[in-house]
Amino acid sequence: MGAVLSSRLISTAIDHLNFIERYNHMTQAKKGDRVKVHYHGTLEDGSVFDSSRDKNPLEFELGSGMVIAGFDDGVTGLKVGEKKTIHIAADNAYGPYHTEMLLEIAKTQLPDDIKIEAGQYLEMKSPDGEIVMVMVKSFDDDVILLDANHPLAGQNLTFDLELVAIN
What we know:
Elements lengths: L1 H25 L7 E10 L4 E4 L6 E4 L7 H7 L7 E6 L13 E5 L14 E5 L5 E9 L3 E5 L9 E10 L1
Antiparallel strand pairs: 1-2, 1-3, 1-9, 4-9, 5-8, 6-7, 7-8
């Protein structure tokens, strides 16, 4: 009797998994769904800026603001296993590049033990106490030019997407 019961449980579990797989392949991703997505992001010159290849897929809730709007829009409507290439204009990605977010500071404002390099990221506190990441754009003996723009600001982005799961 134990073998019969065990075989029924296994059969029920397999039927349940088959139903979930069929359901996922029929269902389109929509706002509020928790999804897993593999992505490969490139800039207009073809250089890769980020990818989940050889890593775990990105997991997020559609429409929650966890990812840029254009990425959210690109995943919406996909079915599990479906692949798609999307192009996101800078305005729907990280926004335009703002020259007013460049800041010159005197080198003497940094502690003596900090060695700076162009391209290096530093943390600064904004006037309201928020931590802001800035990049050292350039420097000389007296002045450091910092950039508070997102590294991808002003960039049009392309993503190759694959919807892996809808939870």
